[in-house]
Amino acid sequence: MPQLAPPLVPGFLAPPRDEPAPAREPASTPPPVSDDGLGDLDLGLELEEIAENSINNTVVVASEQDSKIMVGKEQESEIMVGKEQARAKVTHSIVFVTGEASPYAKSGGLGDVCGSLPVALAARGHRVMVVMPRYLNGTSDKNYSNAFYTEKHIRIPCFGGDHEVTFFHEYRDSVDWVFVDHPSYHRPGNLYGDKFGAYGDNQFRYTLLCYAACEAPLVLELGGYIYGQNCMFVVNDWHASLVPVLLAAKYRPFGVYKDSRSILVIHNLAHQGVEPASTYPDLGLPPEWYGALEWVFPEWARRHALDKGEAVNFLKGAVVTADRIVTVSKGYSWEVTTAEGGQGLDELLSSRKSVLNGIVNGIDINDWNPATDEHIPYHYSADDLSGKAKCKAALQKELGLPIRPDVPLIGFIGRLDYQKGIDLIKLIMPNLMQDDIQFVSTDSFP
């Protein structure tokens, strides 16, 4: 099987577009990207602090840098209320790789973060690309209506053949949104499965995504220039976790991406992309890298006496090979190192504590602001809460509940999943409903 040794020569060019791509003035010079050391540490966002140390292969213990990592109260306030953000003193080419990003495709918090954090980083002067699948299911198709066909094809050697993928691109909010197109992303149902469970070819689908994400900075001319090899890859959850492995096993041995770095962001450790060990040859990785993904289920989790529990684990591969690891909160960074919360990876994550940090997920206040939200009937703010009571009454009316300002209205917003504590709600519900309360829950299932 041929190696995907970069620089990869793209396959044949796609047929020309019927209509021209949206105009975007190429820069007179490539966007400035610094590679001259750590620079100043007062970058305002902790992810940028981690980026600084990752891109230079430097380990900094968070507790020793707290005073330099966190912004001052005044600057932090400006960022939180959405005022113009100060430009970073050291900028990078950043490539987010994700299975979802709002508003294009979203199943949960991963989509929220990957839809808003890249925009925030671009506002601080970084050059940012987001690489995700182009999901078409009949209803989401319109979300990609502004993305144009780049006419770039590449062939990816994996799963017993050379699989062709193409790229679509939209430039929005100073971010390059790149969509990987392949027939496996075109099907009814949600992003990762249907009513019968997870799709059986998810390993194949996200292997394609990871290869394509590694190639995109090398082959796509966006705004007149490719991103090139000096990139920081931000890989999110198991869907993107093969990227750090590919960088280490397939690119750096050829001298490509030798100065790039990768950050693994763990949003949900419960999903790890585990498949039978027999699928390893399908991934197109050298045999000597099997240990990076090797996973053995404990005896109690095996199906029968002859089952050896041998598997490959995408997320484990990223934990082993990523330069830095972050979780979506400080508490979660501790939780994943415990036997109770580590989902079998606690010992490995504990061994990488020196490069493990927690960053609290923020919110996009352009979308989640009751003072301006177009999806609520009345607006309110910290200075004027009158609209909040009106919103409560409107919700009670919509759901057929008695319109009573005096009764507590309790809401649960989240997947009906054990991870979200739905078992605790079920436990207390009989006693809770004996009181004079109203309870509203979403109907989002895993």
Structure at a glance:
With 446 residues, the protein is α/β, with parallel strands linked by helices. The chain has helices spanning 46-55, 62-69, 73-80, 109-123, 202-219, 242-251, 290-293, 314-321, 330-335, 346-351, 386-398, 422-432; strands spanning 93-97, 127-133, 148-158, 161-172, 175-181, 193-194, 197-198, 231-236, 261-266, 274-276, 294-296, 310-313, 324-327, 356-358, 409-412, 438-441. It folds into two domains: 46-358, 3-Layer(aba) Sandwich (Rossmann fold), CATH 3.40.50; 386-441, no CATH class.
List keywords for this structure.
disordered N terminus, 446 residues, 2 domains, three-stranded antiparallel beta sheet, Rossmann fold, 16 strands, alpha/beta
- Look at the structure and give the CATH class of the largest domain: Alpha Beta
Percent range of helical residues? 25-40%
C-alpha Rg (nearest Å): 23 Å
In sequence order, what are the helices and strands, one letter per element? HHHEHEEEEEEHEHEEHEEHEHHEHEHE
Biggest pleated-sheet summary:
9 strands, mixed
Structural class: alpha/beta
Q: Which CATH architecture of the largest domain is right?
A: 3-Layer(aba) Sandwich
Q: Give a count of the beta strands, DSSP E runs of length 2 or more.
A: 16
Poorly predicted regions are: 1-45, 55-83
Head-to-tail CA distance between termini: 37 Å
Put simply, the count of helices is: 12
Protein name: starch synthase
Catalytic activity: [(1->4)-alpha-D-glucosyl](n) + ADP-alpha-D-glucose = [(1->4)-alpha-D-glucosyl](n+1) + ADP + H(+)
Pathway: Glycan biosynthesis; starch biosynthesis
Organism: Panicum virgatum
